[in-house]
Amino acid sequence: MTGSMTSTSERLRGDRAFGASVAGPAHVAADLANQDAWTWTRWRTNYGTVHCAVVCDGLGSRPHAREGARAGVRAAKRAARQWSRAPGAPVGLLVRLLEVLWRLEVAPLPADDCATTCLLALALPDGLEWRLILLALGDGLAAVDSPEGLRTLGGRAEEHFTNTTVGLGTPHHMNDWQVHDMKTSGQVRVLLLSDGIADDVPEHHVPDLLQWLTGLEDRPAAARGQALRRALRQWPVPGHSDDKTVVYLRIGGVEA
């Protein structure tokens, strides 16, 4: 499921996923649509259930930024599903597949007109552990909180990452993708933020945001969605005008 100005959730054997996206004040004032897009999903494989979350942020200077972001979400989900059938394959193949599928998704529009950033989180069961993969191209922030500690990609801590407009559809190299590939056991929390939030969340405040989102888990879906959208619309940073998207995923330990 992709979303803009929406929220959703699902519970499966103690797992929880939800997110929301709202247009930034500048787009609201100009009567423009939200140029962020997001999804979370899961699917069964012969080795267990795979979890996937994606956030894409269309570059505002591009005429088809909204279409590019939505295409990025679709392409990332398709690429992750296909790649997960061969979990021993190099992560580089996942990146290449995502890039090709995105170009097919936006065709016949020129890729440069649809440029978008992309954040992807993928959790694959591996015996009694999780294999967690974070991919990041462009700005925004991806984080995973596991028994091994907190790991982030992007955000204010990465000067190169936040000061460029690299994305799908812009000139870039494979090494412009930030990649984190790790194994862990036990409960895992994953957070994806578009730059409308990530630019204002230094790494030492990520645990606070995770804790607040964890506190929303047991609320009814309607109340949780209302609280999350209200927080995004009332983001307490004066003058911040970007679209804002957050996706949160918690998964428990891998079942024996």
From TrEMBL:
<dbReference type="Pfam" id="PF13672">
    <property type="entry name" value="PP2C_2"/>
</dbReference>
<dbReference type="InterPro" id="IPR001932">
    <property type="entry name" value="PPM-type_phosphatase-like_dom"/>
</dbReference>
<protein>
    <recommendedName>
        <fullName>PPM-type phosphatase domain-containing protein</fullName>
    </recommendedName>
</protein>
<dbReference type="InterPro" id="IPR036457">
    <property type="entry name" value="PPM-type-like_dom_sf"/>
</dbReference>
<feature type="domain" description="PPM-type phosphatase">
    <location>
        <begin position="24"/>
        <end position="232"/>
    </location>
</feature>
